[in-house]
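The following record pairs a protein chain with its ligand, xanthosine-5'-monophosphate.
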Amino acid sequence: PVLVVDFGAQYAQLIARRVREANVYSEIVPHSITADEVREKDPAAIVLSGGPSSVYEDGAPSLDGEILDLGVPVLGICYGFQAMAKSLGGEVAHTGLREYGATDVTVSGTESVLLGDQPASQVTWMSHGDSVAKAPEGFEVLASSASTPVAAFASDERKLYGVQWHPEVKHSAYGQAVLENFLHRAAGLPGDWNSANVIEEQVARIKEQVGSARVIAGLSGGVDSAVAAALVHEAVGDQLTCVFVDHGLLRADERKQVEEDYVASTGVRLVTVDAEQQFLDALAGVSDPEQKRKIIGREFIRTFEAAAEALVLEARADAAASDSDAGEVKFLVQGTLYPDVVESGGGSGTANIKSHHNVGGLPEDMTFELVEPLRTLFKDEVRAVGRELGLPEVIVGRQPFPGPGLGIRIVGEVTKDRLELLRAADKIAREELTAAGLDEEIWQCPVVLLADVRSVGVQGDGRTYGHPIVLRPVSSEDAMTADWTRLPYDTLAKISNRITNEVPDVNRVVLDVTSKPPGTIEWE
Ligand code: XMP
């Protein structure tokens, strides 16, 4: 793999993703990794990420300098660039000049391996206080900016490279090209990692883990659980049973998409549990968001547990009949993604953290072993795997949807009528966004019903006194931060028109123009 050494900023995940976008497999490792540990992983190349503002700060993370002597190509970025400069005997100065945001850079190394074929003047994204004042002995300076004499350097001989700016950020105009030059040209990596090899590798791994035992998977209607289950099905066929809890808080057509489209394209065995009334009863009279989340999580656990228990009993009966224990349900599939693994410290305790986020918590006392075939993947890669497996676009391409569903998109008490109304509005918004070709541009667009708010309107000849619907379109890379999406007015007009005309009791549509932070993506 390519190792991305995480110096503690939020950029390491982004770098890992950009490396994979260049079709090279990457893994994130902590900055405390030693040269011996690196050697054991036998990496094809190493990228040092950005980090805190100064290499001179107390407790600033340092780099085992021996890593630079392993003969493995290294690219240092921002803090990583400075850590490298310092370790190799260059000079890092406290200039007091901060560069932050879009910054013009003059490239002198337009013939170099790293910055070759790039314009001599380009816009990059910077975020640093210190600067490299002098490149280490034997290094060529490739670029500079107004306040940074050494904004990039290279030693082709030692295969060591560095840039002060953030090539992983889209605001760096030629950022991806820097990474690709490093990976393909400097490190000589072919770029042949893709979803087809991921499937092959995971299928083999699942077969080995599961053997002849039975497996269950909870489907939420979301992308991750659908792709995880499809991979397991590809590996072990009917040893897998999927459980889908219809809690009545789903989007329009979601159940049909799972029961018909998903089953048709994968052939999985599916058990659907009808639990709408149970959830509505449990939510009656509750409007506090945290309380709603807890109730939904708890009911989900109960329902799933009962379904799983029934399957286990059935499997035991079968196993007893065939006088073998091969039919026991030993495994549970989880759609844990790489960011969850990284965010929870790279492995230990991961399953628990994910289960809480995901569906409000899977049973803690369940004794299943976990199968997590998406543990090394990012969301867009999961989508690519899903497409490669032939899953329907309505499932693979769908927006992220919270486990507690529409229950946390009704501000106020959740009732059947309100759910129907919100479902109708949500369906219209999704249809129009898709029709306008905007699905790629937005990360998701929660549609929220302000059930306790009423406003006056006029329709036909009469006064109305109805509820507002909020549109919350956001653009994001990972949902940790987000900006509100500038949707075309025509699309907004169409959605507003249709919702106020077609959805009873809604007489106003408003647009949420708050970024995250300070607003979260969901309203509750
Ligand atoms: P917030 O509202 O925290 O949401 O900005 C960030 C992302 O997480 C989704 N979300 C959830 N997903 N279970 C989930 O599986 C949840 O309880 C949950 N709450 C929020 C949200 O849709 C957004 O993509």
